[in-house]
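Lecture notes, unit on protein representations.

Consider one protein chain, 140 amino acids long.
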Amino acid sequence: MSASLLRRGLELLEAPGRGDVPPGLQRERDSPRAAGAARRRKAAQQPGRNKATVKGRVVKSAIEEYHKKKPVNHLTANLKYMLKGRFVANKVITEQVLAQNRGRKSKDQPPKKAAKKKPEGTVFTEEDFRKFEREYFGRP
């Protein structure tokens, strides 16, 4: 429905004598620029119009936006989930998976495990020491 048809329909429904404007106050629209200016004036007079919003957009509370974007700590929920499971993977399989995901750079490699040294014991027995003592010092 066009605006002109709507306007005519409203003029028919108006109370008599109310829609008549004295000829001195009547505005003539010579150019489309004048019509645009009248529309802007009319829009500026509306008291409830918020100029900060775009058509169809609602002003959002800054506090609500902050709470939406605030990081959430999921640690407790994740720990409950992880500890709930009873299945523990085989150590060999976990090592294989870790080895596959490890990069080839030296910084990605785990530190080499040093071989455990056996406690150094003597090659000689107590009897050998006694025998040496007898030979060296001459004691029976």
